[in-house]
Design brief:
Elements: H1 2-25, E1 38-48, E2 51-60, E3 73-77, E4 83-88, E5 90-92, E6 114-117, E7 148-156, E8 168-173, E9 179-181, E10 185-187, E11 191-194, E12 199-202, E13 205-213, H2 215-218, E14 224-230, E15 255-257, E16 275-277, E17 285-294, E18 298-307, E19 318-323, E20 330-332, E21 336-340, E22 347-352, E23 370-379, E24 396-399, E25 402-403, H3 426-443
Parallel strand pairs: 14-17
Antiparallel strand pairs: 1-2, 1-13, 2-7, 3-6, 3-8, 4-7, 5-6, 9-13, 10-13, 11-12, 15-16, 17-18, 18-23, 19-22, 19-24, 20-23, 21-22, 24-25
The structure holds 2-acetamido-2-deoxy-beta-D-glucopyranose (6 copies).
Length: about 450
């Protein structure tokens, strides 16, 4: 009876996973970060003769998705004839046609301004609070204090007796495509604390929206793949062939140019940031999971992340691993880590580098690949632990928010014959196959 219930629960879990993954096909949300979003807020805090002053804030609520160089870019379309009189903490890329202004010349007159963050070395009079990090935003789970950015704008040229309307068609590049923003809506004015927290003050009005990421819209080729190995089998399961593209160059040459680089090819291929080392998977990044050893109460894993880019360092990398073993006490030796609350049966661990140790995942040189690694000690839960059926391998891995291509379950390193686990779980195979198939479906168009 207990077995039957158990089996039913398993089927239920499988169906839920399938449904959620189906959902992510049409991009409802990321099942491992269902509440992730960028929230953009316009807080109007002062009226002017012909307009208002507002503080605009971009908050990254994604647990493990950060905004890398060259930084975020925010855009919108003015509904009326608004102009920006001045700006602090960011810049508008175009001034536009301000020829109808005679004495005071606005800062920007374009109908669809594009806003970029300032660099940290900007002059103090152009800065504002919480600005000027070159558009970089950290992931919420890793560094919430650097996960948002603000700037101030003075908006004018409104019609008589108008308080202005929210800008339309907000767009966010962070830094690439893939983000969709809803309309800016009137919400309760933002409240903040004053006088040491004893008094609440509020802005005049607040417009707010959220922007969410969809890999489907980003239409990126995969950037990462997973390889596996164990102490009990000499076979190394490498990344699936052509995970991120196929070799274009001659097999004998040292380098090939990745597919994504073609539009941005510069005259000097040596400085092309998309140049990756020639491999059978052509992925710029590989995550390797090696099951090192087996103790009575613990098992040990080595996690290695390799950067095959020739001209690109990752300074804010993070890796997300879904594996049921993380439900138990885990010791991570050389990375920072936290466990994220996730659904289903498996826990999700987020890893990132330790400053001055391995925070920088450097690029590959001629004969040396850039890599970072850690060992970890995972406690055995005697009710579920097994080496059979690929249990010891991760279910899903993301590199800086992007899904990594997993090998097919039937290519996983097998236990040698005669070693039989007491805790074999046949349905696990089905689960792994399903996870693989759905991820294949997701990535299908690029393979
Ligand atoms: C955006 O993220 C925040 C924090 O996780 C959450 O409270 C909010 O509900 C999210 N908004 C939407 C529209 O998903
Ligand atoms: C600039 O705007 C003015 C008034 O709105 C218009 O008359 C003029 O043609 C515009 N100039 C250009 C180059 O678009
Ligand atoms: C800084 O502000 C000054 C005066 O407001 C302006 O002339 C200058 O272009 C600004 N610099 C930047 C980088 O925005
Ligand atoms: C703004 O978005 C709406 C709906 O998405 C669209 O119909 C409209 O054409 C857009 N406006 C501009 C100026 O792009
Ligand atoms: C990457 O980092 C290494 C070591 O810090 C440095 O020598 C190299 O110039 C960097 N490469 C790029 C493209 O920034
Ligand atoms: C994890 O290990 C620490 C110390 O090694 C111990 O204090 C803690 O109770 C353990 N937690 C669990 C859930 O076993």
């Amino acid at each position: 009876m207990a077995n039957m219930i158990h089996s039913c629960l398993w089927h239920f879990a499988l169906v839920s996973i399938f449904l959620v993954t189906m959902c992510s096909l049409s991009d409802c949300y990321d099942p491992l970060d269902p509440n992730g979003n960028f929230t953009v807020t316009f807080d109007t805090y002062q009226w002017e003769n012909d307009g208002y002053l507002a503080k605009v804030t971009i908050q990254n609520y994604y647990q493990y998705r950060h905004v890398d160089k060259p930084g975020w870019k925010l855009g919108w379309i003015w509904g009326q004839n608004e102009v920006i009189w001045s700006m602090n903490g960011a810049l508008a890329t175009k001034q536009g046609n301000c020829s109808s202004f005679k004495s005071d010349i606005p800062y920007s007159c374009v109908k669809d301004p594009e806003i970029l963050d300032l660099m940290p070395d900007s002059s103090p009079e152009n800065k504002s609070v919480d600005c000027c990090r070159g558009g970089l935003l950290d992931a919420w789970a890793i560094n919430p204090s650097q996960s948002f950015s603000s700037f101030q704008i003075k908006v004018g040229n409104l019609q008589q007796n108008s308080f202005g309307r929210a800008p339309l068609n907000l767009t966010l590049m962070a830094p690439g495509l893939g983000y969709t923003c809803g309309p800016l809506l009137d919400v309760d004015p933002t409240v903040s604390l004053d006088i040491g927290g004893r008094r609440q003050v509020q802005v005049f009005r607040t417009w707010k929206t959220t922007c969410t990421y969809s890999s489907f819209i980003a239409a990126k080729t995969p950037v990462c793949c997973v390889s596996l190995s164990t102490f009990y089998n000499p076979t190394i399961t490498s990344c699936p062939l052509c995970s991120c593209g196929c070799r274009l160059a001659d097999k004998t040459t040292e380098t090939c140019i990745s597919r994504s680089s073609f539009p941005s090819m510069t005259n000097d291929p040596q400085s092309d940031p998309d140049l990756v080392k020639c491999t059978d998977h052509m992925c710029p990044v590989r995550v390797h999971w090696h099951v090192m050893s087996n103790y009575v109460d613990y098992w040990r894993v080595k996690l290695t992340i390799t950067n095959y880019n020739y001209h690109k360092n990752f300074s804010d990398w993070n890796v997300l691993v879904q594996h049921p073993g993380f439900r138990q006490n885990t010791t991570i030796y050389s990375f920072n880590s936290i466990m994220l609350p996730a659904g289903f049966r498996d826990e999700v661990a987020l890893f990132w580098g330790i400053p001055y140790v391995n925070q920088e995942l450097i690029s590959t040189e001629k004969d040396q690949v850039g890599s970072v690694s850690t060992e970890m000690l995972l406690k055995k839960d005697m009710d579920s632990f097994t080496f059979s059926n690929g249990w010891a391998f991760p279910r899903r891995i993301y590199f800086s928010g992007e899904t990594c291509q997993m090998p097919l379950p039937d290519a996983f390193p097998m236990l040698p014959n005669g070693v039989v686990s007491n805790f074999a779980k046949p349905s696990l195979c089905l689960f792994l196959l399903l996870t693989f198939l759905t991820s294949q479906a997701l990535l299908g168009p690029w393979l």
